[in-house]
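Q: what does this look like with zinc ion bound?
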Amino acid sequence: MMTEVEEKYTERYKEEQRTIECPFCGKGKIDVTYVYPYMSWNVSRISAKSKRTKFYHDERYEVHKKCPECGKSRKEIKEALEQGHTKRLSHEDRIKLWKKRGLLLVLAGQN
Ligand SMILES: [Zn+2]
Protein backbone atom coordinates (compact mmCIF):
# COMPACT_ATOMS: atom_id res chain seq x y z
CA MET A 1 0.00 0.00 0.00
CA MET A 2 2.82 2.37 0.79
CA THR A 3 4.78 1.73 -2.38
CA GLU A 4 1.77 2.29 -4.54
CA VAL A 5 1.62 5.86 -3.36
CA GLU A 6 5.32 6.49 -3.09
CA GLU A 7 6.33 5.43 -6.56
CA LYS A 8 4.57 8.47 -7.95
CA TYR A 9 7.10 10.69 -6.25
CA THR A 10 10.62 10.95 -7.54
CA GLU A 11 13.41 11.85 -5.23
CA ARG A 12 14.59 14.57 -7.49
CA TYR A 13 13.00 17.87 -8.25
CA LYS A 14 12.04 17.95 -11.91
CA GLU A 15 10.17 20.53 -13.90
CA GLU A 16 9.08 20.77 -17.47
CA GLN A 17 7.89 23.53 -19.77
CA ARG A 18 4.53 22.74 -21.25
CA THR A 19 2.02 24.42 -23.43
CA ILE A 20 -1.44 23.33 -22.48
CA GLU A 21 -4.99 24.18 -23.39
CA CYS A 22 -6.87 26.49 -21.13
CA PRO A 23 -8.91 24.38 -18.68
CA PHE A 24 -11.77 26.86 -18.95
CA CYS A 25 -12.30 27.48 -22.62
CA GLY A 26 -10.12 24.76 -24.17
CA LYS A 27 -8.99 27.17 -26.84
CA GLY A 28 -6.30 29.35 -25.37
CA LYS A 29 -2.76 28.04 -25.31
CA ILE A 30 -1.13 28.55 -21.95
CA ASP A 31 2.56 28.30 -21.19
CA VAL A 32 3.14 26.62 -17.87
CA THR A 33 5.94 25.09 -15.90
CA TYR A 34 4.90 21.71 -14.60
CA VAL A 35 6.65 20.49 -11.50
CA TYR A 36 6.55 16.74 -11.02
CA PRO A 37 5.51 15.39 -7.66
CA TYR A 38 8.64 14.76 -5.66
CA MET A 39 9.82 14.02 -2.20
CA SER A 40 12.62 15.47 -0.23
CA TRP A 41 14.29 14.59 3.01
CA ASN A 42 14.36 16.74 6.03
CA VAL A 43 17.05 15.85 8.50
CA SER A 44 16.41 16.81 12.08
CA ARG A 45 18.75 16.16 14.91
CA ILE A 46 17.33 14.77 18.08
CA SER A 47 19.81 14.07 20.86
CA ALA A 48 22.84 13.19 18.70
CA LYS A 49 20.80 10.97 16.45
CA SER A 50 19.66 12.36 13.16
CA LYS A 51 16.24 11.55 11.96
CA ARG A 52 15.25 11.70 8.33
CA THR A 53 11.73 12.65 7.49
CA LYS A 54 10.22 12.45 4.07
CA PHE A 55 8.40 15.40 2.68
CA TYR A 56 5.98 14.94 -0.15
CA HIS A 57 5.44 17.71 -2.63
CA ASP A 58 2.49 17.38 -4.90
CA GLU A 59 2.63 18.25 -8.53
CA ARG A 60 2.44 21.94 -9.21
CA TYR A 61 1.85 24.30 -12.05
CA GLU A 62 3.36 27.71 -12.57
CA VAL A 63 1.21 29.59 -15.01
CA HIS A 64 3.08 32.23 -16.97
CA LYS A 65 0.29 34.17 -18.56
CA LYS A 66 -3.43 34.55 -18.51
CA CYS A 67 -5.57 32.91 -21.14
CA PRO A 68 -5.50 34.92 -24.37
CA GLU A 69 -8.93 33.57 -25.32
CA CYS A 70 -11.15 33.80 -22.28
CA GLY A 71 -8.96 36.01 -20.13
CA LYS A 72 -8.89 33.76 -17.07
CA SER A 73 -6.17 34.87 -14.72
CA ARG A 74 -3.00 32.92 -14.01
CA LYS A 75 -4.27 32.18 -10.53
CA GLU A 76 -7.58 30.81 -11.76
CA ILE A 77 -5.89 28.60 -14.31
CA LYS A 78 -3.36 27.35 -11.79
CA GLU A 79 -6.08 26.45 -9.32
CA ALA A 80 -8.13 24.68 -11.96
CA LEU A 81 -5.12 22.66 -13.07
CA GLU A 82 -4.01 21.71 -9.61
CA GLN A 83 -7.46 20.83 -8.37
CA GLY A 84 -8.10 18.75 -11.46
CA HIS A 85 -4.98 16.78 -10.79
CA THR A 86 -5.08 16.65 -7.05
CA LYS A 87 -8.59 15.44 -6.52
CA ARG A 88 -7.40 13.09 -3.85
CA LEU A 89 -6.34 12.99 -0.27
CA SER A 90 -3.39 14.94 0.94
CA HIS A 91 -0.48 12.89 2.17
CA GLU A 92 -1.38 13.57 5.78
CA ASP A 93 -4.92 12.41 5.22
CA ARG A 94 -3.59 9.26 3.62
CA ILE A 95 -1.42 8.54 6.62
CA LYS A 96 -4.39 9.06 8.90
CA LEU A 97 -6.34 6.64 6.78
CA TRP A 98 -3.58 4.05 6.91
CA LYS A 99 -3.30 4.41 10.63
CA LYS A 100 -7.01 4.03 11.00
CA ARG A 101 -7.00 0.96 8.78
CA GLY A 102 -4.06 -0.46 10.64
CA LEU A 103 -5.85 0.14 13.89
CA LEU A 104 -8.94 -1.60 12.65
CA LEU A 105 -6.84 -4.57 11.62
CA VAL A 106 -5.27 -4.69 15.03
CA LEU A 107 -8.64 -4.53 16.70
CA ALA A 108 -10.02 -7.23 14.41
CA GLY A 109 -7.02 -9.40 15.14
CA GLN A 110 -7.66 -9.24 18.86
CA ASN A 111 -11.06 -10.81 18.64
ZN1 LIG B 1 -9.35 30.23 -21.70
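The two ends are 24 Å apart (CA to CA). The chain has one domain: 2-110.
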